[in-house]
Amino acid sequence: MSLVELNSVGKVYRSGKVEVHALREISLRVGSGEFVSIMGPSGSGKSTLLNIVGCLDRPSSGSFRIGGTAVDRLGDGQLADLRNKCLGFVFQGFHLLPRLTARQNVEMPLVYRGVVPRQRREKAEAMLAAVGLANETGRLPTELSGGQQQRVAIARALVGEPVIVLADEPTGNLDSNTGREIMILLQNLNSERGVTIVQVTHDQAMVAYGRRVIRLKDGYVVDDSPA
Question: How many Cβ atoms are within 10 Å of 190's Cβ, its own excluded?
Fold first, then answer.
């Protein structure tokens, strides 16, 4: 069974009498263990597609499932619960809480799940070690490099063992060498741990680290092929 299933999904934004069709009749599947890149020019709909898959936005038409659950039928509370239990997010801007240490930032998804403090600490430290930050758990974000901050963000995305990790331009704020390090980390997490990853990127070089690329134009899928 596919982890993600979109059937004829459309998204229309309305401003007065003006309609903007961000997505048009999108049908695609993402299976367990895939590493998929979504590409396209500005305005092609790639961020809208990621937001729908991430349950941050709702489609205007069509149907959408994650792990067999009909997402388009869920209420807001159920969507929030699904995001917390099934999805991990990595953003271009890191979005770490500045007054919390690396470990405390990684613990946050577990706090919302009600995991007891000792287990939170153990899981967060283990995940930070997995991304190469075993010695940085007590540092604040301002004491870390950009690449280290993104590693913390990846650890936070993974600590709850999500069904799928969604990455929005994960190397966009990094220099090219650090960006390659982050992509190798994601690639290894995908190949060694079986983590399913869907990333949005504008950088063709980043596509090579995945296994499949979906290209959008004007809200349509115009190509879906191996990377």
Answer: 19
Note the helical H segments in the chain: 46-53, 76-86, 102-113, 117-130, 146-158, 176-193, 204-207
Q: Residue 158 corresponds to which tokens in the numbers above? A: 């993974």
CA 158 to chain centroid: 10
Cβ neighbours around 15 below 10 Å, total: 7
Strand order in the sheet with 69-70: 18-30, 4-15, 61-66, 69-70
Task: Say which residue the tokens 């990621």 belong to.
Answer: 50
Q: Say if residues 48 and 11 touch (Cβ distance below 8 Å).
A: yes
227 residues of the chain, pLDDT tens digit each: 689 999 999 999 988 888 999 999 999 999 999 999 999 998 899 999 999 999 999 999 999 999 889 998 899 889 988 988 889 999 888 899 999 999 999 999 999 889 999 999 999 999 999 999 999 999 999 999 999 999 999 999 999 999 899 999 999 889 999 999 999 999 999 999 899 999 999 889 999 999 999 999 999 999 999 98
DSSP for residue 211: S
Residue 180, helix vs strand vs coil = helix
Q: Is 142 left (phi over 0), alpha (psi -120 to 50) or beta?
A: alpha
Q: Count other Cβ atoms within 10 Å, centred on residue 139.
A: 16
Q: Would you put residue 64 in left (φ > 0), alpha (ψ -120 to 50) or beta?
A: beta
Pairing of strands 197-200, 35-39: parallel
